[in-house]
Amino acid sequence: MKPKQFRAIELILQGKPDTAIARELEVDRSTIPRWRNSEEFRFELNQAREAMQEAFKERLFFLVQQSSTWSFTIPMAC
């Protein structure tokens, strides 16, 4: 895959629409859907999605673990 295709994957995962991706990468707007139809591109996109989901899970697990060790004090109104 080309560097622009990897950048397109990053932008897709950020939720950018195809037209904005094409504009940023300076490619024709029909290029992004064509890439999306490529088996190699879909494979890389799915790999990136899975890696992102795993990172989110790990971060969430860390935050939950951290929150269970915190103690909160609620100030009393006078």
Question: How are the secondary structure elements laid out?
Answer:
Elements: H1 3-13, H2 18-25, H3 31-36, H4 39-67
Helix pairs in contact: 1-2, 1-4
List keywords for this structure.
0% strand, elongated, 69% helix, mainly alpha, 78 residues
Describe the fold and architecture.
- With 78 residues, this protein is mostly helical.
- Helix content is 69%, strand content 0%.
- It is built from 4 helices and no strands.
SSE string, helices as H and strands as E: HHHH
The general outline is elongated
The profile of the biggest β sheet is: none
Number of helices: 4
Indicate the proportion of strand residues: under 5%
Mean pLDDT across all amino acids: 89
Q: Indicate the percent of residues in helices.
A: 55-70%
Class by SSE composition: mainly alpha
Estimated radius of gyration: 20 Å
Instruction: Give me the count of strands.
Output: 0
> In oligomeric terms, what are we looking at?
single chain
Compute the separation of the termini in Å.
65 Å
Point out poorly predicted stretches.
none
What's this model, at a glance?
By secondary structure, the protein is mainly alpha-helical. It has helices at residues 3-13, 18-25, 31-36, 39-67. Helices cover 69% and strands 0% of the residues.
